[in-house]
Amino acid sequence: MANVSNVIKSIQDTMRKDAGVDGDAQRLAQLGWIFFLKIFDDRESQLEIMEDNYKSPLAKGLRWRNWAADAEGITGDELLSFVNLTLIPKLKALSGSDPIAVLIRSTFDGANNYMKNGTLLRQVINKINEIDFNATDDRHLFGDIYEQLLKDLQSAGNAGEFYTPRAVTQFVVEQVDPRIGEKVMDPACGTGGFLTCAIEHLKKQSKKPKDVRTIQDTIHGIEKKHLPHVLCMTNLMLHGIDVPYNVRHDNTLSRPLKDWGVKEQVDVIVMNPPFGGTEEDGIEANFPGEFRTRETADLFLVLLMRILKDGGRAGIVLPDGTLFGEGVKTRIKEALLTECNLHTIVRLPKGVFNPYTSINTNLLFFTKGTPTKEVWFYEHPYPEGAKSYNKGKPIRIEEFETERAWWGSEKDGFKSREETNQAWKVSIAQLKASGFNLDQKNPRKKEEGPGDIEILIPEYEKLLGQIAATRKALESELRDALTKKTK
Question: What does pTM read for this prediction?
Fold first, then answer.
């Protein structure tokens, strides 16, 4: 077994020497399609053993084993010419309508070779050949390192898109509890964090050989951006999905809400929609007038109510702004509480998404088909001695043990739940009276002063800026009015 950690480090060091690769995003984009081809070739090796008549969708010269596997194979300008003029163009134009051909085409739609030095590219390929993706130990270790690569890519945050900590995805999936045979979906799946957690959760239930096929057929996702989509494909293959053909490269919100039919409805949705970002002009026209907004997270919440089956369950990450927001947000929350049983909101502490954002986040759990009678809130505390999370000390799954023990069962109406210093419930009557404000504070929590100065100062400065802008707008309107009057 290769020391996968050292292999990855060596690959990154080699790519940094290449003048054509500019930054983490390009480096990961390059690694995305290279790893895809290597992992696909390793999976094909297994399929050739298991299936007597297996036929690759790739022409002989395009298969990894025939151009990349030989350490002494083509290199330098010859390798660059092959990759740039033959390999990538032919994979982008791969013919065929079968799921594997479609998958490969979509993976290479938008792919580029950023490396300019063919000798360095050969060194990267040779290093990747040290990993056997059919070897369980190699595959699992690479999975951990792969997640670290994804974190590195997302370290700056981008248009409201943040890497969701593994502990959060795992807890959400566990509590929603998808079962084998249920259709599971993440309509903004990014690099596949929620989907891979769902796969691992379902694998624990697998008892029959056909269960493996069922899991593959029932995992669904959509991702708007090309790079995360490619990384998601690779991620799913690492988790045993031979052909992730149910994960599409598309913008879920670009389709009119009314066009989603009953046959497309799903049993389970787990997701962290982009928040803080806005959609392009015209997207809001795909939604009914009372729900029109350009706030991405709000649109996804409306979408979820449409594509969940009656009895379908959802676990979703949402920012505080959705909980206390008014206007369109109020109408969306009223619809949610009317159409679904929003039974639990886990209020996460500050810093869960550090260093990407300081925005407070929440985990909402609901079931479609019955209206909400009461909402349980659970305030997740920091671990003992901690005052925040950071990149070196992220939230851990072990911290959710108290929620797990308290959770109970929806089938009996969560009768086992009790109010504690962390948990309290609010009736639907109270929520209606508050204008459907879901930003309900812990009644047992003592105020601990004005708050964190590092957060308060930027908020104060932002408020001053808003006041100045409003004042300027009022002065402008007043001048215009006076000018018209004098005329």
Answer: 0.82
| Higher pLDDT among residues 146 and 345, named by residue | 345
pLDDT for residue 251 is more than 80: yes
CB 243 within 8 A of CB 100: yes
Claim to verify: residue 80 and residue 168 sit in the same structural domain: no
Task: Report if residue 438 sits inside a domain.
Answer: no
Q: Which amino acid, one-letter code, is at 288?
A: P
> What size, in residues, is the chain?
487
Parent domain of 15: 4-133
pLDDT in tens, 387-414: 888 777 889 999 999 999 999 999 899 9
156 confidence band (pLDDT: 50, 70, 90): very low
Q: Summarize pLDDT for 32-42 with one digit per residue, the tens.
A: 899 889 989 98
**Residue 307 covered by a domain:** yes
Residue at token pair 């740039």: 84
Of 115, 143, 108, 244, nearest to 186 by C-alpha is 244
User: Which amino acid makes up residue 383?
Assistant: P
| 224 SS3 class | coil
Same domain, 120 and 185: no
Residue 114 sits in a domain of what CATH number? 1.20.1260.30
**Residue 323 in contact with residue 438, Cβ under 8 Å?**
yes
Based on the fold, state whether residues 344 and 422 are members of the same structural domain. Answer: yes
**Domain match, 105 and 185 both:** no
Cβ(135)–Cβ(110) under 8 Å? no
> What does the pLDDT average to over 314-341?
94
What are the two backbone dihedrals, phi and then psi, of residue 469, each rounded to the nearest 5 degrees? -65, -40
Q: How would residue 153 be classed by pLDDT, with cut points 50, 70 and 90?
A: low
CA distance 225 to 248: 10
Q: What is the pLDDT of residue 333?
A: 97
223 and 287 in a single domain? The answer is: yes
CB 144 within 8 A of CB 239: no
Examine the domain organization and report whether 36 and 67 are in the same domain.
yes
Q: Is residue 443 part of a domain?
A: no
- Total count of domains within the chain: 2
Q: How far apart are CA 274 and CA 303, in angstroms?
A: 14
Distance CA 230, CA 179 (A): 27
| Pairing of β 361-368 and β 308-319 | antiparallel
| Angstrom distance (rounded) from CA 294 to CA 281 | 8
Task: Please indicate, yes or no, if residue 418 is contained in any of the structural domains.
Answer: yes
d(CA 209, CA 220): 21
More confident residue, 49 or 459: 49
Q: How far apart are CA 238 and CA 123, in angstroms?
A: 23
199 and 329: one domain? yes
Are 76 and 116 found together in one domain?
yes
Note the pLDDT of residue 77: 96
